[in-house]
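[SOLVED] Need 3D model of a four-part complex

Original post:
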Amino acid sequence: MSTRERVRFGGRSARIQEAVHQAVKDLSARTPRADLTIPMIAAKAGVTPSTIYRRWGDLAELLSDVAVSRLRPIADPADCGSQEADLAAWTEQFMEEMSSDACRGMIRDACANPNDTKQCCGFIQDQLQVIVERAEARGEKPFDLERAMDQIVAPIMYRILFSAKPLDIPYSRQLVADFLK
Amino acid sequence: MSTRERVRFGGRSARIQEAVHQAVKDLSARTPRADLTIPMIAAKAGVTPSTIYRRWGDLAELLSDVAVSRLRPIADPADCGSQEADLAAWTEQFMEEMSSDACRGMIRDACANPNDTKQCCGFIQDQLQVIVERAEARGEKPFDLERAMDQIVAPIMYRILFSAKPLDIPYSRQLVADFLK
DNA sequence: CACACTAAAGCAAATTATTTGCATTAGAAG
DNA sequence: CTTCTAATGCAAATAATTTGCTTTAGTGTG
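Solution:
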């Protein structure tokens, strides 16, 4: 009685969420984004469409939710021995991963939902925070997190969403070099 | 006979496009984004829904199209006498305009469509290009356009889309100062 | 200006997606 | 084991989307 408004996390709910997410991943690999429908996803997941409508509301929210869970990093940034090397390696890998067509699409999907975009932003900041803390532990002078978001992450995301300009290793090195200068 | 695959620009087509765009603007000012529907927009515009489906495809594309036309700048950047002053004034005004809730929504809409995002990017670049050309005419050493996109425009757009951080005049001054440094 | 041509719009029927009320299932708590 | 109820399933009702065909109105020609 003490737990009002409780939400159920484990069990069937979790299984269905997993099945629906998986169905979205499977289908979006084979189907153009504009052809995806909720009844199609529901069928693939072995679930009734109304379940999806009630839990997610509409297709944009579902896709945004799936996108965020896929954009969450799996591991901490690699430890390369120094802050500069960590940052260079992380930037290169981040740029490489995020600029794939699949990732571009997911980022566009995530953009539709303000909450989800903030979460993505948080993931990235957490990754950089790990690099900063590691630098502090080594006794290095840590870089400023906000400036890194502005000068490294923002230009990459801007090119992914708005521009046709290349996202390659020279560009990655230039961003890091300009930032550390 | 020489004009194959011709498209009609003026006349009725233009009137209907205008009516539909206006209907979207009117409705989106009063209606939460998630409640907008094509039949609703069609009724407001005095048009049949199938006209909208055939011309725009779906709601996301229509909203994206309207967003881009609204994000197109009306005038050239103000001439403040020097490149630095022009850039400072432009950045301040750009940030102010783009960070309104209405603009945030339009930018999210535009993000859904790769072509439209590139167009937006082009508008902004054209504005900065005007400042650069003016500087050249004055005999000033012009700044690098790509660096300006990376270090001024990108951080602003990133905060608008992904972050909850403030977009205020001190931040605008900081971006410009860091860039010109 | 009249005429032919046809892109774009209208209309309405057919299809498909979404919403909703009620019945059922299966976690969670006692 | 039993009770409680959030979450799902099901199916009917509603709403959106697609589509074939008709009509309207720019465009170009004589």
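Edit: The first helix of chain A runs from residue 11 to 30.
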